[in-house]
Amino acid sequence: MLLLRAPRRALLVCVVAAALAGCSVTGSGSAKKSPGTPGSVRSGTAPASVAADAGRSVVDFAGTAPLGADALRRTVDRMRARAGALGLTDVSVEARDGGITVTGRTADEKRLTELGTSGRLGFRPVLALEPAGGAPTSTPTPSASSAPTRGRALTEGLRPGATGSASASAGPAPAEGDPAVAALQARFAALDCSARERPAAEREARAQDSVALCGSDGGASGSRVKFALGPTAVDGTHVSSAKAADDRQTGWVVRLGFDRTGARQFSDMTGSLAQKAAPQNQMAIVVDGSVISAPSVSQRLDGDAVEISGSFTRASAEELAATLGSGALPAPVTVSGVTRLPHD
Known about the structure:
Layout: E1 3-4, E2 11-15, E3 40-41, E4 56-63, H1 69-85, E5 92-96, E6 99-105, H2 109-114, E7 121-131, H3 148-157, H4 179-190, H5 200-203, E8 211-216, E9 224-229, E10 234-235, E11 239-247, E12 251-258, H6 260-273, E13 283-287, E14 290-293, E15 296-297, E16 306-312, H7 314-326, E17 333-341
Parallel strand pairs: 1-15, 2-16, 8-14
Antiparallel strand pairs: 3-17, 4-6, 4-17, 5-6, 7-9, 7-10, 7-13, 8-9, 11-12, 12-16, 13-14
Helix pairs in contact: 1-7
C-alpha cells in the first residue's frame, strides 16, 4: 500500500495505468459500421485505434439529458480548452442541433472522443474496501451482524459529523439498523466490479453522499478493488491548475494546484485521515465514478501542490491533465456517432 508523504511540498500518488481506463468515455463494446455507410461509425463508441493517414473524423456528442443553451455553450468552451491543452491542431468544436460536433484528424480520433469525458474529480475518505469479487451477491446482507467486519468499518465511517470536511471528531456510533449504514452496506455487498462501463448512478453520485465504487488502490498489482467511501472532502472545482510533466525520478506525472479553499480542505482531510487506522487512513481519488488510487496517509499534508505519479505515458498524463485542468463538463455528454471522412 502506498504511503503519502510530503517531499518537496508535493503529494506523490501512485496510479496504475490500467485503472485509468475507467476515466474514458470511449467505454465498452466494439464499434460497428452502419450497413451501407463505408467508413461510418454509429455505435455510440469510438474505435480503439485508427490509421494515422485515414483523413478526418467527425465526432458527434449528445447530452445524457437535453442541453440548455447556457450548458451547451459552456460545455463547448471547455471542450475547446481541452483541445488546446492537448495541442490538437486544426480541431473544430461546434454546437449543432442541440448537440456538439468535433472535427479533427482521424489520427487524433481517440483524443477527440475523450474531449467529452466528464472529468469529475473528488477526494473521498475510505470507509471500507475489499478485493473485487466478480458477480454481485444474489441477496445483499446489509446488517452489521451478517458481515461484522464490514459493518463495523462502515458504521465507524458514518458516525455523525463524519462528512466530507473530514474534520469532525468521533461521536457515538449510529444505532444498529441505521438506514443510511444499511443502504451503503447493501450497495457495497452487491457492487459488481467486473463490468467495464460504470453505471450512471456511480459516475454521477452526489458529492455529499457516501458511495460504493470500483477502482484500484494504487498497489503494484493493479488488482480491482471495491470501496465504500464517505462524502467528497475536496472536489475538482477547487483545482486551479493541472499540468503533465516528465519527472526524472518518477516518469510522467500530473501536477495539480488548488485554490485557497481546496488547499485548506486537503490539509484538513489528510490531517484527519493520518490519525485513523487502516483502511480508514486511506484517501480515494475518484475520477468520473472510478477510484484511480487510494493511498494511505501518515501525516497532515498541505495542499500547495499535489503530484499524481505512476505508470503514465506522455499521452495519458496529458489527457488527464487536460481533463482535470479544464474542470468537469457542465453537462455530461456521450459519443452518439463517429464519421470518418477520406482525404480530399
